[in-house]
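Hi L.,

As promised, Mitochondrial import inner membrane translocase subunit:
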Amino acid sequence: MDNSGLNSPDLQKFLEVEKQKAMFQEMISKLTSQCWDKCITGTPGSKFSSSEATCLSNCAQRYLDVTQLIVKKFHSMQ
């Protein structure tokens, strides 16, 4: 069996893109879960209250800030 295709640059690039997509989806899932649990304390209505919307926005922004900081730290360590 010819394994030369397994190490092709195109395949490696494809795998890297898919890995990044999976990491992004996992991050969004964690962000949604954590911010929802923190900000939505009751049964949600047809729309968020202003305090819930503000909390969700702030929570998401802090989560993204911390994630960026961690990524930068790991890149600097390499």
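The mean pLDDT is 86.

Thanks again for sending the construct details.

K.
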